[in-house]
Amino acid sequence: MVVQKFGGTSVADPTAVRRLIEIVRAARSRDSKGPVVVVSAMSGVTDALLAIAAAAGAGKEAEASDRVAQLRERHLVAARDLAPGQHDALEATLGGAFDQLTAIVKALAVLREVSARTLDVIAAMGELLNSRIIAAALVDAGIPAEWVDARHTIVTNDDHTRAVPLLRETHAAMRATIAPLVDAGRVPVLGGFIASTTEGHTTTLGRGGSDYSAALVGAGVDAREIQIWTDVDGMLTADPRVVSSPRLVPELSFTEAAELAYFGAKVLHPSTILPAVERDIPVRILNSWKPDGSGTLITAAGAPDGTALAGLASKRDVTVVDITSSRMLMAYGFLRQVFEVFERFRTAVDVVTTSEVSVSVTVDDRRHLEAIVEALREYGEVCVEPEMALLCAVGDRLRNEPEIAARVVGVLEEVPLRMISQAASRRNITVVLRQADLKHAMQRLHEEFFA
Q: Could you give the CA distance from residue 80 to residue 333 in angstroms, rounded to a whole number?
């Protein structure tokens, strides 16, 4: 049995959903059970819901209500098109959900305050509505599907808008809700991204959380494979916006995929693979527009005869922060003091390099940068360099073949490099350079390793 997750572009409209139905039908013909289907909200709906919350919280009830009416019409039109045989019951269900959203908008417009808990209730609507429609569409197409409320399958803590799953409770809930349906020959359909606390309060897993939901479900039902259906052929050797002709990566290891995802390969959410890694469940990335493609397979071992590098990834809009102080020389506790500043302002650091009297870090979250710099000046001189970028070369072979790292740096000999870092896992080598040099540098590396 497989778990199939369909992202926003794969469920964007009735035409996309009809492709989904045929993909599910094909999977059902191959396996004796399942599949389990996890779906995102329609493309753009989550952003629209967050805009509704913002408008209502600002007291703009008319604007928020207009947006609710637009979403209502979009979902009702899709429901009429995809599930005409269940039109009355489905329209009543969707109408009830939108009536609830309208009541929330009115309350927020009076209170002029949107708590994280309320924001989760609003943001969850997209997946709840779309999973209802898709379950009904599958039934209308002759597939024995059944809608499952994802809030009854994934249990989290109460850190609203970025909740952390409680694995023991989640696996128990899946055994109680999803497993019996699969055993009965049904196709469970649930929304990704959403969950609930042990007290039953709605939570969300953060942006990109639908992939995480699919991995949690796959681990919970011991799936043979987790499939992420999107609008690209799989993981590519480089960002197609930077390199004109990147190649498809047919197979990756879990660690290579995690590194590429963390450093900017947007096809896969970094958290997606964590539950799969723990259970050694393969993850396959596939294109819903080209369902016959082989995609990219992500496994524990990776490709047995892999290339020197698995791929390249990059992050733009990075800022380098340098802290220089003679007090750092031969002193203990200095680095702890520096990183406590970043912790205090909840700002993550990507790359770190140190010398005898200085430490350099990169950040891509600049919301608290001025306050961070002010706090760091207590420990030394601080210099900030904006408009920088990270370029990361990833490959398991970097661990045992140091000449590959030398080739990476050698190819970039004419590019001014601000920082060079190789993590303890030795599966990536990361350079920090001016954002203006990123395109040229990535093209040179791609020509060297993949052309």
A: 64
